[in-house]
Every structure is written in structure tokens, then in C-alpha cells.
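Reopening this one. Same input as before:
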Amino acid sequence: KISDDTMHFSLSLLFLSTIAFCSPVPQVLPTAQDVTQSVINIHNAVLELDATVQAFQGGSFETAIVEGKEVLAGVAKIHTVNREGFRRATLALPPFSVEDTIKFIDTVVATGWLSQSFQHGQSPNFMHVDVSIPNATKHLREKEPVFKANGFSAIVIASLALLEFDHDTFSAAAAKNFNLATDKAKLAEGVGAAANIHSVIQDTIVFY
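Same output, byte for byte:
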């Protein structure tokens, strides 16, 4: 026979577990800083893939397979950090502040200072995605004969199509958070940078 105390204790546990199940779980929404950090994460992943692409030599079947897997791993990493950025941008509460909007755009756009720093021999890590992605696609076009000779053209095209979709959807999700009180020229700069990235990816798909 179950004692009254045991029954009371069991019912109390059931009641508490029901409350825990039904109560909303507090969720910290992404901030503008989180969304901007995703742009930096994408940039860093692009630099890694660019280095892998430039190192691709192909040749024997075994070598091509190993190097091809490394290229695909690089594509997968960009896709992963981009989707993280998309989720952050989608969940963030709009609008960003004007200051955060400008910071996001400046992180995407290769500003004059960033371009001058690179020209003067500083680390490519000073570049942002509006420089690193065009540079990466340039190197990818240069490698077209090697990828074609090793049977990787279709894989390159499919990878670029995926990354183009990722870029376009992340850009759209981020743009909904822009503060419309931001200087119109700055907003146009951001739209132009996103359009440039889309264009260079699309041009590389056509090239292949």
C-alpha cells in the first residue's frame, strides 16, 4: 500500500514537472553584434576555402579525391556559418540602431581604409567579404582548367549555387533589421556590396 506521504510526494513531483514543461524557456535573442559577427565568420571561412582552392592540384585520382573533399569541407563550413548568420538575422528584433546598422554595413563593405591597408602589405584578414569573396571567385576561375580536368566542374557549380542562395537569403534577412534613419548613402553602400557579391558568384557559375 502506498502511504499518504509517498502519494503526496509523487503528486508534487508530477506537478513540478508539469510546470517546468509548460513554462516558456527564456531565450536570448541575437543582437546586431551577433549578426555582424556572422559576417566576420563568413569572411574567415571564405579565406580558408580560398587557400584550399589555390592549393588544389589534382592529378591522380587519389589526390583529386582527397583535395576535393577538402574543398567540399570548406564549402560546408561557409554554408554552416552563413546559416547561423541567417538564423541570427531572422530572430533579431528590428531595427538595429543607426550605429549598429553602419557597423554591419562597414563590416561587409571593403572601405577605403581597408583597401589601403591591404595595398600597403598588411594582413588579408583586414579585408571583409566584399573583397574576400570576389578574390576567392577570381582564384576559382583561374583554377577552372584544373577542376575541369579532374571532373569537379559540376561540383563547383553546385557549391556556388548553394553559396549564392545562402548569401542572398542572409543579406535579405539582415537588411530587414537596418535602421531607416541611417544615411541613405550608407544604406545604398550596403545594398551595393551585397549586389556585388551576388554578381561575382553568379558570374563564376556562368564561367564554369
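So the earlier flakiness isn't reproducible anymore. For the record, Residues 114 and 120 are 10 Å apart (CA to CA).
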